[in-house]
TrEMBL record:
Transmembrane portions of the chain: none
UniProt keyword list: Signal, Transport
Keyword Cell membrane listed: no
Keyword Transport: yes
Pfam families, per the entry: SBP_bac_1 (PF01547)
Family: Belongs to the bacterial solute-binding protein 1 family.
Top-level taxon of the source organism: Bacteria
Protein name: ABC transporter substrate-binding protein
Phylogenetic placement of the source organism: Bacteria, Bacillati, Actinomycetota, Actinomycetes, Streptosporangiales
UniProt xrefs under PANTHER family: MALTOSE-BINDING PERIPLASMIC PROTEIN, MALTOSE_MALTODEXTRIN-BINDING PERIPLASMIC PROTEIN
Length: 412
């Protein structure tokens, strides 16, 4: 368990730890020409097994003149950001660090992340899905390297639904029918509370409906998407309680056998696969709307590799980035049921043997509007408007029109 220190104690803990680990500005080559770089990264799994040290060992074997010192980051994203914001401007930061996929714009503005376009060749980025690269960019510059992702998937009960639906319309009809027949308490549960998770769900529905820009939310496709989301509640396909559900509540409802369908992340499948629910557990890519592109949109979550602009060991860090996103390293993380970003590995049928990974890599990744600074403020505007419509406080069109005015002020 990560200790939760007050802000002052956090930065003291950081500044005390990093010099021992070898920080970016103070690490110099040894007499033998060996360079040590520092990698600041939180655990990549929720279990006791974690691939970080295995990756480091394999990298050092392939590149014996480079040593990697691992500094464990807190699992709290807020604490993680606070420590980096303190350390990097003071030359206490790591050479390379693991960061959330929605950080590029704000970290670029604060000069906490190096633009990589001039340091990595154009064909380097071909190893990733273009949408993953787009999520790493801000103002036409790339500030992160996709390392591993979380993808939204559809979990379903195979005893109630032998074949997962292809469209949202089919899912709604099946969910409503199962509830009406008394076979299940709830049809479809998802994350509808007033928080960032609702922005992710909204991103998927709006993109499925044809919206192309995450910041233009008052368009006809967006209105159609929100109208459908509201109809899930009014029809009974989803319970009214969904407007208070976050990941834990939705997962708990599904695990208890109350719901036939659950929209969640690939990690939820891994969690449920270890429980009594595994016998009836099914997983698939998310549906789309009838007549639209399939499979459905799946919001990109996960973590990327960022470079400290103050590193004195950029060549070695770039070598580390290339290796960590190359085929051997990406196969390694797939063995831990972590979703890789390398397209060659993602396409390998052996990797797809895991149902959770298969559903994730077949998903159609879409990014949130995080390429602009102040993303969290923008997200708050979006999920507040969507939540107002879901609860019936405002009509979908009115809620989105009002939110659009606020977004225009924030981005103007």
């Amino acid at each position: 368990m990560v200790a939760r220190f007050p802000p002052r104690r956090q930065v003291l803990a950081w500044s005390a730890a990093l010099p021992l680990a070898g920080c970016a500005r103070r690490t110099e080559p040894s007499a033998g020409g060996i360079v040590t770089i520092t990698w600041y990264a939180s655990s990549m799994t929720s279990s006791h097994t974690d691939p970080r040290q295995s990756l480091i060992d394999a990298f050092q074997k392939a590149h014996p003149r480079i040593r990697v010192k691992l500094v464990s980051a807190p699992t709290s994203t807020d604490e993680d950001q606070e420590q980096l914001r303190y350390a990097i401007p003071r030359d206490l930061g790591p050479d390379v660090y693991l960061g959330d996929v929605v950080w590029p714009a704000d970290f670029a503005k604060e000069r906490l992340a190096l633009a990589l376009d001039d340091h990595l060749p154009e064909d380097f980025w071909d190893r990733f899905d273009p949408e993953l690269v787009a999520a790493a960019r801000s103002r036409n510059r790339t500030y992160a390297v996709p390392f591993y992702v979380n993808q939204a998937v559809l979990l379903y009960r195979r005893d109630l639904v032998p074949t997962p639906p292809d469209t949202w319309e089919e899912l709604a009809a099946q969910a409503d029918g199962l509830v009406t027949a008394g076979r299940v308490k709830h049809g479809f549960v998802w994350q509808g509370d007033r928080y960032e998770g609702l922005t992710c769900v909204w991103t998927e529905f709006s993109r499925d409906a044809g919206a192309e820009d995450g910041l233009r939310i008052s368009t006809e496709p967006s209105v159609a998407a929100l109208t459908f989301m509201r109809s899930l509640l009014t029809s009974g396909a989803s319970p009214a309680a969904v407007t208070g559900f976050r990941e834990p509540q939705a997962l708990q409802s599904f695990e208890a056998g109350e719901a036939a369908f659950l929209r969640s992340w690939d990690s939820a499948y891994l969690s449920l696969a270890q429980t009594a629910a595994a016998g009836t557990l099914g997983v698939a890519s998310l549906p789309s709307f009838a007549g639209r592109v399939r499979p459905g949109a799946s919001t990109i979550g996960g973590w990327s590799l960022y470079v400290n602009p103050r590193t004195r060991h950029l060549p070695e860090v770039l070598t580390f980035l290339r290796w960590m996103t190359g085929v051997p390293a990406q196969y390694t993380i797939a063995q831990y049921s972590i979703i890789p970003t390398n397209e060659i590995v993602r396409a390998d049928p052996l990797v797809g043997d895991s149902p959770g990974i298969k559903a994730s890599v077949q998903a159609r990744p879409v990014s949130r509007p995080s390429g602009r600074t102040g993303y969290l403020d923008l997200s708050t505007v979006i999920f507040t408007a969507v939540h107002r419509a879901l609860t019936g406080e405002a009509e979908p069109r009115a809620a989105l029109t009002e939110a659009q005015r606020t977004i225009d002020r924030l981005t103007g």
